[in-house]
Design goal:
Number of helices: 5
CATH topology: Rossmann fold
Structural class: alpha/beta
Order of helices and strands: EHEHEHHEH
Number of domains: 1
CATH architecture: 3-Layer(aba) Sandwich
Number of strands: 4
Shape: globular
Largest sheet: 4 strands, parallel
Strand content: 15-25%
Radius of gyration: 13 Å
CATH class: Alpha Beta
Helix content: 40-55%
Strand order of the largest sheet: 2-1-3-4
């Protein structure tokens, strides 16, 4: 299973925590270059991020080319139950767990 983390500004992320994923709570003024360095040291391969984190450093994440894969995934997005279920399945398969 790849090393996966979820980047957010929120203290509570119940859906992401339900997968056993590491939740990394960031400060609103975080340094994206330093964050990438820390994630590389921790051997993180996939970093999901909330929409707020993406917006805070949009230019950095848009231009980033490196070993980390950043995926925009907003668990607070108000969608239908079917869409939420499908998003959970996509997320689960990407981190190597099986869902029903």
């Amino acid at each position: 299973m790849p090393n996966v983390v979820y980047l957010t500004f929120n203290e509570k992320e119940p859906m992401m925590a339900s997968f056993g994923m590491e939740i990394k709570v960031l400060n609103e003024n975080f340094d994206a270059t330093k964050l990438v360095r820390e994630l590389n040291i921790q051997h993180i391969e996939i970093a999901y991020m909330s929409n707020d984190v993406y917006k805070a450093q949009k230019s950095f994440f848009t231009d980033y080319q490196g070993n980390l894969t950043f995926i925009l995934f907003d668990s607070n997005d108000p969608t239908s139950n079917l869409a939420k279920r499908r998003l959970k399945d996509v997320l689960a398969s990407s981190i190597g767990i099986q869902t029903r």
